[in-house]
UniProtKB/TrEMBL annotation:
The active site is at K58, S137, S161. Residues 17-492 form the Amidase domain. InterPro entries: Amidase (IPR000120), Amidase_CS (IPR020556), Amidase_dom (IPR023631), AS_sf (IPR036928), GatA (IPR004412). The lineage of its organism: Eukaryota, Fungi, Dikarya, Ascomycota, Pezizomycotina. Allows the formation of correctly charged Gln-tRNA(Gln) through the transamidation of misacylated Glu-tRNA(Gln) in the mitochondria. The reaction takes place in the presence of glutamine and ATP through an activated gamma-phospho-Glu-tRNA(Gln). It comes from Aspergillus lucknowensis. Subunit of the heterotrimeric GatCAB amidotransferase (AdT) complex, composed of A, B and C subunits. This is Glutamyl-tRNA(Gln) amidotransferase subunit A, mitochondrial. Pfam families: Amidase (PF01425).
Length: 503
């Protein structure tokens, strides 16, 4: 199929799926670009495997030609004068911007319902035909991929925002190791956790985008430097370790603490099916313990809001933030301007995070909240280091490389992405909502540990029903593969392997 025809199909799907609210802005400039890409293909001058493909970007990633709103009223009038590095890298590889996708305001949420443009709707419906949550906060990107409105989508994952929507929509969502992909031009939520992630229908497509984006960016101070990248390569790609998938059986870890009684039966079945599938391929399964799992969620919800409250301080109506409308009295003080800008510009969930963050950083609370949460974060990382066969490549010392190849740890962990299937949007949004904002945080319980430790993780769809020929969409659950820091390729390989038992 020509790239032009492919692009036309995606754009037609965008029009027929407007009610799902996946996009905030559509691009009008794809036609000429798709024709150019077809010409390059004919001349054998294709730029990359993504040349001429339509890619959607979450609307907290800056684009020069389209507005960047973060789904917030406070960025109503904002236009970025530049492209984020990830946008530029993909454009340089020939990709075409399909548009900007809907999200929870500033990435804060788990269900893409906290958007000033209204909630994203999952194409999957509950039994009574009300729409299900698309997951958040990259719900628009996930729905755009799931309903063929684009070839691939870029999201951000601070505590699970790429993996959870992937799990809820039956797509593949990959969060690379922290520092692999540039964050320059990505609007910050919580800098020490923010990661750009990739959503697609298949892991091989995700890998194509990762190959383009996995570069050092001197403009992002947290981007892994070239020496760190070589250090990771030399430690994790030793001959003994690089052949882990091809020749040696993998040692697969199942974290016992994830086997909670609240796990939905369909999720539990999908987890067992994926483990059974890997076992039949000759890989070995090993129970492991990650004792800090229970505290990870609370630590995340102290640390992320703390960073958010400081990041969002700049939306004061002076440099950032929309000026409030209404009379501007002569004696209006600066603090009155700040209060009105912030009061009118931010939605309720963002305000909740700012208050939580400001409290945990305050002089009376910092020791009991922020400092304790940082301690837990270190312990979570320690938990992971204790179970992986490979040492953390940036913290282990050189003399332990050999030891790491013989240590009886596991290569990857396999666990559910979310404890339950997607809830319905009405349960999340009604005034007498069945699901409180705090309940919504629980959806992230299995995704935040990898975020706190900066580890690579992918969610792939697996059916919870084994031997039925035609499974219903609602049987799909996201299964997560988590690897040691820097072990992104292995995580992608195991994700691809698991696709074999997707249905
Ligand atoms: N749901 C989590 C939160 O609200 C994660 C969001 C994200 O990864 N951007 O913080």
């Amino acid at each position: 199929m020509s790239l032009l025809l492919e692009a036309e199909r995606y754009v037609a799907n965008q029009s027929s799926h407007l009610a799902l609210n996946a996009f905030i802005t559509h691009s009008g400039r794809w036609l000429g670009q798709a024709k150019d890409a077809d010409l390059r293909r004919k001349q054998g001058k294709t730029k990359s495997r993504l040349d001429g493909r339509l890619i959607a970007f979450k609307d907290n990633i800056c684009t020069r030609d389209l507005p960047t709103t973060c789904a917030s009223k406070s960025l109503e009038a904002f236009r970025s004068p530049f492209n984020a590095t990830v946008v530029q890298q993909l454009e340089d590889a020939g990709a075409i911007i399909a548009g900007k996708t809907n999200l929870d305001e500033f990435g804060m949420g788990s269900h893409s319902v906290h958007s000033r443009f209204g909630p994203v709707k999952n194409a999957r419906c509950s039994d009574d035909l009300s729409h299900l949550s698309a997951g958040g906060s990259s719900g628009g990107s996930a729905v755009a991929v799931a309903t063929d409105q684009c070839y691939l989508a870029i999201g951000t994952d601070t505590g699970g925002s790429v993996r959870l929507p992937a799990a809820y929509t039956g797509t593949v969502g990959f969060k690379p190791s922290y520092g692999r992909l540039s964050r320059w031009g990505v609007v910050a939520y919580a800098n020490s956790l923010d990661t750009v992630g990739i959503l697609a229908k298949e892991t091989s497509t995700v890998r194509d985008a990762f190959a383009v984006l996995n570069q050092h960016d001197p403009r992002d101070p947290t981007s892994l430097s070239p020496p760190s990248r070589s250090r990771i390569a030399s430690k994790l790609e030793l001959p003994q370790l690089s052949s882990r998938l091809e020749s040696a059986p993998l040692r697969i870890g199942i974290p016992l603490e994830y086997n909670v009684s609240e796990l939905a039966p369909s999720v539990r079945r999908a987890w067992y099916r994926s483990l059974e599938y890997l076992r039949r391929q000759g890989h070995t399964i090993h129970p492991v313990s990650l004792p800090m799992t229970k505290s990870a969620l609370s630590a995340y919800y102290v640390l992320a809001p703390a960073e958010a409250s400081s990041n969002l301080a700049k939306y004061d109506g002076v440099r950032y933030g929309t000026h409030p409308e209404g009379p501007n009295s002569e004696d209006e003080s600066e603090s009155y301007l700040y209060a009105r800008t912030r009061g009118e510009g931010f939605g309720p969930e963002v305000k909740r995070r700012i208050m939580l963050g400001a409290f945990s950083l305050s002089a009376q609370a910092i020791d009991n909240y922020f400092i304790q949460a940082q301690r837990i974060r270190r312990l979570v990382r320690h938990d992971f280091d204790a179970v992986f066969r490979a040492e953390h490549p940036l913290t282990s010392n050189a003399s332990r490389i050999e030891e790491s190849t013989t240590k009886a740890g596991v290569d990857v962990l396999i666990c559910p992405t979310a404890p339950s299937p997607p809830p319905s949007i009405s349960d999340l949004m009604n005034a007498s909502a069945a699901i409180s904002p705090l309940d919504a945080y629980v959806s992230d319980v299995f995704t935040v540990p990898a975020s706190l430790a900066g580890l690579p993780a992918i969610s792939v769809p697996v059916s919870g029903k084994g031997n039925v020929e035609h499974h219903a969409d609602n049987d799909l659950a996201g299964i997560q593969v988590v690897g040691q820091y820097g072990d992104d390729d292995l995580v992608l390989n195991v994700g691809e392997l698991l696709e074999g038992c997707a249905i």
